[in-house]
Amino acid sequence: MRLMEVGERMDQESTTRDVMRAMSGDGRALDRLWEQHRRWAAAVVLSHKPRDVDVEDLLQEIAMTVVRKIHDLRDPALFKPWLRTLAVNTARTAGRKRKVRLRLVRPEADPHLLDCEDTNAEDSARRAEGRRLLDLAHRLHPDYREPLLLRCVRGMTYKQISEVLELPVTTVETRIARARRMLREEVEFEEEATSMRVARGAANE
Question: Is the pLDDT of residue 127 over 60?
Answer without folding.
Answer: yes
